[in-house]
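Protocol step 4 of 6: structure prediction from sequence.
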Amino acid sequence: MVSPAQKRRAARSVVSAKRCTGRQACRYLGLGRSTWHYAPLPPTPRSVQLEQAILQLSHAHPRYGYRRVHAMLPRQGLKCALRTVQRVRRGAGLQITGPAVRPKTPPRPEAKIKSDGVNDVWCVDVVFDTTQHGTAVKFLTLLDEFSHYNLDIVASRQMGGRQVVAALETAVELHGPPRYLRCDNGAEFIAKLLQAWLKTAGITTRFIEPASPWQNGVNESFNGKFRDECLNRELLGSVLEAQCIARSFRDDYNTSRPHSSINYRTPADYRAELLRQAPDSGQARQAGPSLRRELAIVPNPNHSLGSNQQPARSLIAGGPRV
């Protein structure tokens, strides 16, 4: 299928080579004379502004696809069709190659406890990298599985049970304890020190099956984005620099990066939307039984409690979990 633009280029090439006239080239190629003489109109100021915004976002985030760039345009007060973003990026040669498609694995409901809401299941994993001097760096990534919110990224030369406990203590102090912690069978996660701390904190460990990373899919997906959009683009000078870069990526991921699985909202907005609900609303029940401190901080002032209902402050951890 040859487009009119391709026919016009072919006609101009044979006319410039003086092989035939323009009228004959149009007759031979089946090209209309009006198409041959068509002169495109100059771009409007809005189209120029839109194209510049698309290219600027694409260069700032080279691993973002056209759908994610399209979701970020309304933040700059610009709107356009999805195919417009695709056309501009294709014209600038900014297409990206996605990851290889792996065969789907049959679901194993007995191998994974699904998250019921915010602070219900936290998932944790370790990502490896090296500095420019060859020093090994390990990143501990911790996410809330339901809201996809990145709780923390901790960089260290060593990542044993002691470092994992310190990271979890900081996260629990800020966000409250979860019910479950999902992780693989790595040495840092089966350490006796970590297991003793989890038992004291009342957190149950949910180990995935060996060689089954898809059972920790939320964290594995984040690790892929973390490596693709951050680690592969940065040259780490030291462990301290790695920690600063990781925390900067964490803040950008939570507050700026649109997430496709939550309708291109940011994890911070989605988490705040869940925690903003009244404690007995359907959305709050969907958010799970582990809402503690954050739900109490943002109660709904227009909500009236019934005779059999407790205020949001009663959801703060103080007694045994159900």
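Step 5 (inspection) to follow. Confidence is low (pLDDT under 50) at residues 281-290, 297-322.
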